[in-house]
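Escalation from tier 1.

The customer reports that the assembly of three entities below gives different structure tokens on two consecutive runs. Tier 1 could not reproduce it. I'm attaching the input and our single run for tier 2 to review.
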Amino acid sequence: MRKFLSPYLSSPITVIGGLLSLGWLLVALLAPVLAPYDPIKTLMPLAKPGALNPAGGTFWLGTDMLGRDILSRLIYGARTVVVFATLATLTAYFVGVTLGLAAGYWRGRLDAVLSYFANVVLSFPVLVLYIVIIVVIGSSPFNIILAVTFGSAPAIFRIVRGITIDVASRDYVSAAITQGESAWRIMLFDILPTASGPLAVDFCLRLGYTAITIGTLGFLGLGLPPPTPDWGTMVNEGRGMAIAFPHLVIFPCLAISSLMLGLSLLADGLREVSDAQGRRA
Amino acid sequence: MTLILFIVRKLGGAAAAMLTVSFLVYLALEVNVEDVAVKVLGQFSTDAQRAAWLTANGYDDPFFIRYGRWLWSFVTGNWGDSTYYRAPVIDLVPDRLAASGILAGGALLVMVPVGLLAGILAGMRPGSLIDRAVSLLSIVTTSIPDFASAVFLSAVFVFWLNWLPGASTMLSGFSLSEMVLPVLVLAFYSTGYLARVTRASMVEVMGTHYIRTARLKGASPARIVWRHALRNALITPVTVIMLQLPWLLSGVIVVEVFYAYKGFGTLLYDAALNSDIRLVEACAMVSVLVVVATQILSDIAYGWLNPRVSLLEATMGNK
Amino acid sequence: MRTDERQPILKVKNLSVTLPKGSDRPYAVNDVSFDLKPGEILCIVGESGSGKSVLSSALMGAVPEGLKVAGGQVLLEDKDLTRLSERAFRAIRGRDIAMIFQEPMASLNPAMTVADQIEEVFLLHSEFDAAERAKRARALVEAMRLPNPDRILKAYPHQLSGGQCQRVVIAMALAMSPRILIADEPTTALDVTTQAQVLKLIGELRDVHGHGIVFITHDFGVVADIADRVAVMKHGEIVEIGEAKQVLTAPQHPYTQALIAAVPSLDPHDRPAAAEADPVLAVRGLQHSYGALAVLKDIDLSLAPGRVVSIVGESGCGKSTLAKAMIRLIEAKGGRVEVAGTDILALPSKKLEKYRRTIQMIFQDPFGSLNPRRRVGPMIARAARLAGASSTEARRRTEELLDLVGLHKSAYWRKPGAFSGGQRQRIGIARALAMQPDVLIADESVSALDVSVQAQVLALLRDLQERLQLAIVFITHDLRVAAQISDEIVVMQKGEIVERGTAAMVLQAPSHPYTKTLLEAAPGRSTF
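Tier 1 run:
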């Protein structure tokens, strides 16, 4: 374990990225323990950060116009982001990896059709795509996962297909083919492990971008239905009063930016280690 | 001649993509006719009103015939009426698109020089102080969502320093000061991204055999960068700039909504919020048209910069 | 010889270059000294990792990042190049010392025309005006005997062949008539006939201009053809230096002796006489094309058990396509490939998986042919399992095979990264043999190996072949290697078989002009 981690620990940037990402994961897991208040309970409207709760305790980050504690909403919001971003990214990965492997390995007509559709979907500006989808099917947790899957699976498909084509031309895959190894075993044991380095990097980034997408949809008022605590929705709700009460918007923005920054730094570190290993192999 | 053939082929591909998109958009928005009637006539319309409206507008015909008719009227410029703005869609789109174009143009003016310069300086000497600074900064800017950078920049320039207006409604005519923040927010992410791409490309080129050849010819470092590395290193960033335009289109929605700027983004946004399906359809088609057009431009730029790729080959091999 | 009375133009004294910390040895180049006289070609020979390329870059003042010149002198006349500032060295590079490289295509800027790249040397080191620069560039291109100079000058590198690119690089190097030329494996990436032409050109230019040449190579054949003097490098040190004739015919140092002994001879190796047997491999009318370009035209081939046929040809002749089509890694456009009586090409894919066992392949690249993430033992055992062995049987067979190819038992649980190129090739052989094939195809299987390792792997193949009575199709560009292993040799050119016969016949009494060209181009044939 120590040996496995050591190349990552040598770069302070990677460590910071890992700690930030891990930190938000822990916050999400331990939300009920960490949050000082119930995130959807009305306590005292528009308290400034650090204001004292007459019923005891402090509103460290203030409260929103409905009187809900912002810190608690941020903490539970982490849970929302982690759950939905992870679920959506995993589904997108499942679809993208499966189709990408198949298209890259077999090529031919299957590849042509899948690649064509991937290109069509990718030629939509992402946000336009999400807005159209949400307008059509409405905004619900399930629909958001569906929209994100539809929007990012083509990009994953492209990456996996590219790597598969590259790896499939290597001699060790040829060797497996000439031994009569079955296609799915070759994809699973020879191609996928080789792709795991770049995919891990992409996964971190995509997890972050999915979080941003969910946040952006929330910001546009198309996100998860209230009163679910969600960072983007918090910005949307607080926007109108931001001049008088900047704490309504600044803290959720800091939260999502720090999560994405953590994931980006982590991805960067992973990329460096995976590049270095690639050079040595 | 090759250029004409190239453009004809590209346009063919673009037309095919547009056709697919139009079908998907129409399928998504109009396959359920009851839904269409509700969206057009509003929630409080009666069943009888809806049925009459559907019959009057040809919704009793089979789906494919409706799609064909819709496509034909779309191509001939009859885009229907907006239920929200109570005006023909075709009159709404051009002005709004131009307004967003100004925004995107401003963002490009910031992003291209800054991003390229930072990327080249960083990539010239990997591992140097300037490289590490640029790399870190670009990670930071690419990690902040548009709405968050809008909040942060507004917090500094509007709430704290009070230098710039917090909204860009342009109610009293065009105002440059109202443009500054939306442009900065749009450029914020893209500049960092472009710098990263340029840096990576520059690092790769500086490690090639032909750069070593130039060095061993006795060329000076400045000459190596300007004469030998730059043209090769710019191939990727230039295509990235082109492909960044569609991305700006996404960013435009957030920025325009945040600053209440009357552009294409707010048009689409209002259309979506108000279930204005004709307008949504038109906006979706226009945004895909913009994307496809920039893709063609980026392919031409790629072929022009890279003598190894003839335009003809570029049409056959899709990256 | 004729250069002896002249004063050296380059003197290298006790030159050392350190490797970064944590490398397997402290010095890339250790205490190296030699002289170079005008008009002399000094060959520096060594195997991979001997430090010969680092030495060449040190002479140019451009050691790779992380390495450092730690001591010694490089004296150009009386100027010590190791003490020059980067700016001062710049004036010398390209003017007094020039270099040509191993990868000619990659050494030219893809976005600049040939004319621009040659003229740049004048721009940097002379006062010539544009017209004079253009005139001189054209004269240089003509002197390189490039066909159609006007077209070449306007061309971009990707529009030229490898040999043409190398001539352009040489033209660039000779532009300012430097006194010293450093050539780092300049012909290694070229086909054998192109190599012969480029070597001839380098020799002739030397005769005309009288510059001294430091010629880095791994190939003793090339040394025999071109060198006046030879320095042999091992682990960063020169172990032997002397007149070419003497080093090649009467080497003093045991390492030189071993290297020279490992150079495969062009004389056919003695092979047991053919026993009468039905062919185990029969290729009939095999065809393939890429678009309109036919790469295999009606190939016929037959091979009896226990026999070895070599397929020889230059790059692009279709020999690798032939290998891939025979083993059905690509689908041929026509013809039959019968292995032990079954037409492999006609089998539906489900059935094919069962018959794959009968024909196996050893690949060219020892680094690309083993999955770096899988352990060696299980990888071989998996092949045995696919051939129908039970898991205990597979395990036992793998251990036997590791022993048979000369690897230690401990190799079983290690990953490919822990092995050298030669050892990896042994693993590849074991993996192919684990399926107990009827026919083995070796596609350039020893080309990527150093000459001493190459000799060992060839000996192993020969030994296994005789013991197991394997039928081997041996694909190679190297007639010397073919001579060492074949019963029969088939020569391919442009997708066609132009000559076939017993090894002795083809090598000693070739009938087709192309075979004769190939034989004449084989470097060092007067010596080895």
